[in-house]
Amino acid sequence: MDQIEFRRISTEDESKLRAQCIEGLGADQPRTVFDAVQAIPWFRGDDEVLDALVGLLDSPSQAMRGLALEGLGKLEHSGALGPLTTFVETHRLDLDEAAAAVAVIGHVGNEAMVLFLERVIWDGASFALEIRERAVEALLELAARPIESAAALLEAVHMSEELEKALVEAGRAARRALNVGEWEEKGFATIDAELDKEN
């Protein structure tokens, strides 16, 4: 079998792809937008792609908003965090969309997002349990980077006597997963004894 040769695309071709991606994100048809979203990993951190995706968050189409969230996750641009927190606030009654936005915050977020996630987790009057559980999962992603304030908040969730049982259990599971990840990085072959200490 012939060996496959991978070559970096030229700057000119990359510019054309970028222009096509941005144009596709502005299309009316979800399929065209979907195709453009798949190209976004080529342009991580691009400001114009960010602007196009943020504009899609205001689309009257749920499908388009979902594609915007998917694209923001692929773009990994910190400039998305402000629009994402606003989206969570304004779409809190749409559990799937708000939860998806919280998941993206976990994927691309930074230490500044810990306070926002803390408010979501503890504000049961404003946010449904499903959204708050997703916020705990987002904390795990931040803590794994590692962001110490996120790890500390996971501990607070795990130990809370005020939060619902489902959230406490989610916090415990996240903390456990975080510890397992740390042990694997250190090369421990077995963690059973340490896990027993947590129980």
The topology string of helices and strands comes to HHHHHHHHHHH
What is the typical, i.e. mean, pLDDT?
Answer: 88
Kindly report how far apart the N and C termini lie. 54 Å
What percent of the residues sit in helical stretches (DSSP H or I)? 55-70%
**Total domains:** 2
Globally, the shape reads elongated
Please report the number of helical segments: 11
- Approximately how much beta-strand content do the residues carry? under 5%
Poorly predicted runs of 5 or more residues: 188-193
Short summary:
By secondary structure, the protein is mostly helical. Helix content is 69%, strand content 0%.
What does this protein look like?
The N and C termini lie far apart (54 Å). The radius of gyration is 20 Å and the shape is elongated. Helix 8 packs parallel to helix 10. Residues 188-193 have low confidence and may be disordered. The protein folds into 2 domains: 1-76, Leucine-rich Repeat Variant (Alpha Horseshoe), CATH 1.25.10; 102-199, no CATH class. It has 199 residues and is mainly alpha-helical. The chain has helices at 11-25, 30-38, 47-56, 62-75, 81-90, 95-108, 113-122, 129-143, 148-159, 165-186, 192-198.
